[in-house]
Amino acid sequence: MEKIKQLQQDFADFMAGIDFGGEPKELYAPIAYTLLQSGKRLRPMLCLLANDLFGGDENEALWPALALETLHNFTLIHDDIMDKAPLRRGKETVYQKWNSNIAILSGDAMLTMALQFALKPKKGATIAALLGKVAREVCEGQQLDLNYETQTNVSIDEYLEMIRLKTAVLLASSLQMGALVANAKESDIQHVYDFGITMGMSFQLQDDILDLYSDVETFGKRHGGDIADNKKTYLYLKALELASEKDRKRLQQLFTLHMDHDEEEKIEEVKAIYDRLNVKEEVEKVIAEYDRKAFLALDAIDLPDERKVHLRTFAEMLSGRKK
Amino acid sequence: MEKIKQLQQDFADFMAGIDFGGEPKELYAPIAYTLLQSGKRLRPMLCLLANDLFGGDENEALWPALALETLHNFTLIHDDIMDKAPLRRGKETVYQKWNSNIAILSGDAMLTMALQFALKPKKGATIAALLGKVAREVCEGQQLDLNYETQTNVSIDEYLEMIRLKTAVLLASSLQMGALVANAKESDIQHVYDFGITMGMSFQLQDDILDLYSDVETFGKRHGGDIADNKKTYLYLKALELASEKDRKRLQQLFTLHMDHDEEEKIEEVKAIYDRLNVKEEVEKVIAEYDRKAFLALDAIDLPDERKVHLRTFAEMLSGRKK
Question: Looking at domain B2-319, which of 1.10.600.10, 2.40.30.10, 3.40.50.970, 1.10.10.10 is its CATH number?
Fold first, then answer.
């Protein structure tokens, strides 16, 4: 835990030394507002932990760590426009606080800044190429997510591919970049990437559960937002699979309703069906399986177990096994 | 002219060999739709001409040329959302043909693709860094442009700085990148950049004139769109400067009206004031001065005049001296 806290502090200190200001202020104020909120810094931490795992120079890894955090926050700003999300981390979203034009443009500037940060380390060109690849994948995932809002016949496999692109690849790339600047060998970079993918799948499925089964104070977002937005999460797709003919029809009908309908009522009715079918427990089983695979990938890395302690601890914190 | 036509053909052939497709198709179709329209290919041409000027390898310059064209088209897609523009090059804009979410996301993917293309040549890291710098500047320029739509006291200097950022820097960077991959010396890279800035200023001021004084068939955009959008162009700012108290007040009043007002009537009334004050001729004087400075910068490049023929011819075509 000491190592994790130290890396968190190092990243916070590093960010404190970066000037996110600039002119015109309408463009840069939303960037500072977004990046300087105290988020989980999950992606930077994965990058720094992977770099530490392979004995790399932390100064080289801080730049990709910042690039990843900036890229992630860019996606949030643009996604919040598309999802019409009023809250993020318990605060107003950029599009809500300013307007959607400013949110588009400051997001564009952030994507560009992410690239600029990625180019800073010695292996800048390679890191920037990876950043480009993962940024494309995240866009593809977000487009699939938008498609599935209106597409009626989404399969569980399609959903899993969507969250792989939208969430897991960025977590995996964070680990990959940290390992890469540390000059890890090819096979180990692949293992750490695989660890990130499976952990990312687990993380997103947990997020789906938290969206409905946690309260807004701890989660920082609108409660049941996925249901309100007709997002076909694993919960919903599993419920469809397990439901009686009557429940299935009702669920499908509820997931065509839009904001003119009473939102709270809709969320409560969907949640009641989920609870009756025990879909939360079903999703938890799938999460456990991803977690198991993640730790197998971690085991496969060609290093002594004691070196893997910090990354393992961090992943266990994320998967909620340890607080 | 042969050289210019040859480079145009080379770029067209190069683009024809690039696969702009991908999944999900909702993300990639707008990219192919935008990039495969027959635009002027101004930025790629400037990059290839500068590379040719300094005797560089055309294969190295084609990638930054494509990166620049992709970056430019990304800005058009996002700007068209912000400006609510229905037409671009005489065709429906992406946000109009699909929707604004798809336009945001496919624009994001294009910005990322621009980065990926920029990384391809031998000097990829340097080109990508320049692309990042210019992308930031273009965002800043667009934000100033948005600000000036509602800001009442815009000065002519502020306007010129806005168009420098929004338009001129990208043209200048196109020349700079072409010169850079051709290993031109520092002082010549600076001259060719300065040439691009002054030519770009001239180009944008001409565009302001064309927006009002050409017809939609040849221009491909809504006629008088700048007036409809209350864009404070050089024409407007010069008119304010030259106008009688009465005309000035009327102009300012007209430039607070929004779409609920009869658009055609507003455009005609503003145009009548401009014509009475001869502002078109005033802007043409400023354009001539920028053109003069542009050709001075071209003269300063440390190469025999005969090498500069193609770039000079291309610039003269742009400035409308030669057809």
Answer: 1.10.600.10
